[in-house]
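Dear support,

I submitted the protein below through the web form. The confirmation email said the job was done, but the results page showed an empty box. After a refresh the structure appeared. I'm attaching both so you can tell me whether what I see now is the final result or a partial one.
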Amino acid sequence: MKNCIWACCLQAALIDVAIIGSATHAHADIKDYEFRLVDQTVKKGDAVISVRLVHKPDGKPVPDAVIFATRLDMAPDGMQEMATKMASMPSTEPGVYKFKATLSMAGGWQLSLGAKVQGETGTLENKLLLKATP
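What the results page shows now:
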């Protein structure tokens, strides 16, 4: 009888440990991700802009994100109305996303991105600054 009670107490304790352990397990947060420019400078005219999506805590690239919002404008130079269209391009490097755009002027450009990271809730939004040179 004492063995049965002891076994039940042990089983209950193990269940409690499992529940507490899973409740304190750290989950990733959308704030743990960011886009980074591969090159901060591009040539004026037709340009390919590459960005890398990384998991900040470990620096690993994040493939298969769904980028649903893109904008490229000259906000850094006070001309946010000066925007240009962008088109997605294929990339062979995991976690690197490429876009083709025509940069009509040399100067500061702001790339705004909105994305969903698989397995995470919320939307990742980043604004990156790059420079177009003559």
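Response: this is the final, complete result; the empty box was a page-load delay. Residues 36 and 132 are 17 Å apart (CA to CA).
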